[in-house]
Amino acid sequence: MQYISAPWRGPYVRTVHKTTGCVFCRARKSEDDREMFVLYRDSLGFVILNKYPYVPGHLMVAPCRHLASFERSDEKLSCELADLLKMSLRVLKKAYHPQGFNIGMNLGRSAGAGVVDHYHIHVVPRWAGDSNFMPIFANTKIVLEDLMTTFDRLSPLFEREARRR
């Protein structure tokens, strides 16, 4: 098996079994957006990088309230999250020039949700040929950009978008 260095994963590996509670609520309560990879906050929702991205720029839009059920969100919250989704698409288009996007929610463990009790919307920029054989044949995933680089690339673009609101 080939080994590929990924030192930024060290903190996760050392703490994965020690963390308790909701990752989204922890990020929402934190005052250090850079440490938690929170790109943008609003009164009802926020945008956060996925710590285990499929590709650079994989982010999530989540409500501030701890809600498992999307269909129980009121109209004001749904509209705010839709606005954050639109903002995220504009920012990702400027930063990465993707050829497309995957956008969706995994609601419930059987649907693939890693966090089942706080719904969130995945926003994944995509390019032709961005998937390869490595995860299947080599049990290895290659991500071309570390999370701090992604954060530093996207954060100023979210700030500019926020000023336009």
Oligomer: single chain
Q: How many individual domains? A: 1
| Overall pLDDT | 85
Poorly predicted spans: 132-140
The CATH topology name reads: HIT family, subunit A
Secondary structure: helix percent: 25-40%
- Number of strand elements: 5
**Biggest sheet statistics:** 5 strands, antiparallel
End-to-end gap: 49 Å
CATH superfamily: HIT-like
Structural class: alpha+beta
Describe the structure.
It is built from six helices and five strands. The longest helix has 22 residues, at 75-96. The protein has a five-stranded antiparallel beta sheet with strand order 1-2-3-5-4, with helices on both faces. A hairpin with a 3-residue loop joins strand 1 and strand 2 (45-49). Mean pLDDT is 85; it is low at 132-140. By secondary structure, it is of the alpha+beta class. It has a single domain, classed as HIT family, subunit A (2-Layer Sandwich).
In short:
The protein has a single domain, classed as HIT family, subunit A. Helix content is 37%, strand content 15%.
Overview features:
165 residues, HIT family, subunit A, 6 helices, 15% strand, globular
Per-chain topology:
Elements: H1 10-15, H2 23-29, H3 33-36, E1 38-41, E2 45-49, E3 59-63, H4 75-96, E4 100-104, E5 121-126, H5 134-137, H6 147-164
